[in-house]
Amino acid sequence: MSKNNDELFKNVISHSKEYGFVFPSSEIYDGLSAVYDYGQLGAELKNNIKTYWWKAMVQMHENIVGIDSAIFMHPKIWKASGHVDGFSDPMIDNKDSKKRYRADQLLEDKIAKYEKDGKIQKAEDLQLKMDEYLKVENLAGLKELIIEHEIACPVSGTRNWTDVRQFNLMFSTQMGAMADEADVVYLRPETAQGIFVNFLNVQKSGRMKIPFGIAQIGKAFRNEVIARQFIMRMREFEQMEMQFFVRPGTEMEWYNYWKEARLKWHKALGTDPEKYRYHDHTKLAHYANAAVDIEFEFPFGFKEVEGIHSRTDFDLSQHQEYSRKKMQYFDNDLNEEGKPYGNYIPYVIETSIGLDRMFLLTMINAYEEQDLSEGDKQDSRSVLKFHPALAPIKAAVLPLTKKDGLPEKAREIMDRLKLDFNMQYDEKDSIGKRYRRQDAIGTPFCITVDHQSLEDNTVTIRHRDSMEQERVAIDQLEKIIGDLVSWKNLLG
Known about the structure:
492 residues; alpha+beta; BirA Bifunctional Protein, domain 2; Herpes Virus-1; five-stranded mixed beta sheet; 23 strands; 26% strand; globular
């Protein structure tokens, strides 16, 4: 990470806390590693990102519906999905610092360093070896690579490593009144399985025809041993996933459709297209026949924010085998196409986006430190340039002074607008300081009520990004703000 990028990332983290976006969880008790709380503005921004995703996936598609499945699920589900036996990370400990690391991440960091130093062949060779060892779970081989490439512990600086061991990432607990009689249940490590086990419930109750999708937003839990990069890797996180069920043989057509559709969704927010890229998986999961990540260039490098996977019929087949319930779809449309009626297990295209990563991406993309100095006059501002539809607060109402009937007029406007928009009222400090406060939390519009407002029912609207001001009629405010913050600007 370059000094500028490192500084940007640190500034975003401190800004997030100072203005009520993200707090370390349990901070008064010295925090809890890799767990964070969303503050008053963070909760609003997070909800707006969810709304944007839900509208794009469910509201805009007649053949996609949404569900909300339980976090606790029958333990056999995780056996069928492969999580009980195969959901683990290769971990290695440094004996001097007593710190634990993911072996593959230590190697990935080394690969990134080789690439930065122009040692491309070394980076490619290490990548190939690492992929090969991960595929066959050659843990001794991973340790050999760490030693061979002289990878030191970032904390102690030594290379005094333990062997590499596998750690299961699922949290488990007991369900039942008596501990010795209780069944072990797991906190779900992903939201997808709640969709798969409800496939037939949704299909039959909603009279859904293939192709159709089921979407879900929900919490998932992974015992990530390493806390890294703020809210990038957390033990408790939120996913926005959609499983799209298709006829076998059509999966690549739909895979390519969703690959393009999902990148378009990201770019509609006005993010620099150069900061996004596709990363095709060379090493596929055993159940997949195609997989790609949409990666964003964070200050610490390109990282995955969304995955699109062609999962074949693996999940539904596994649940059919373990539950002994048929997970097949009867396709009437095949007969209309001159083919015999078909009972088959659908193939699945998955789109899965990390909400917390999307939140971090949105904060990083929006954050700017601007120098507004003119001549000898020093001035600057911190501003969050959120897309207006995502902004936590849509507009602030600011009476120019606390007297002469201006607060009363401002309150009238506030009461009128807050039914449709999330608003703030602020009458403390100079108007300039109040503008800066709203800039810092990303409010796109400030409505200033002055003495002229009492005479002709007009106010000044100040635009966050350009800082330009315009005089408008109070009666026009609902339409003006409504048009500027409308979801149509993103979804139209």
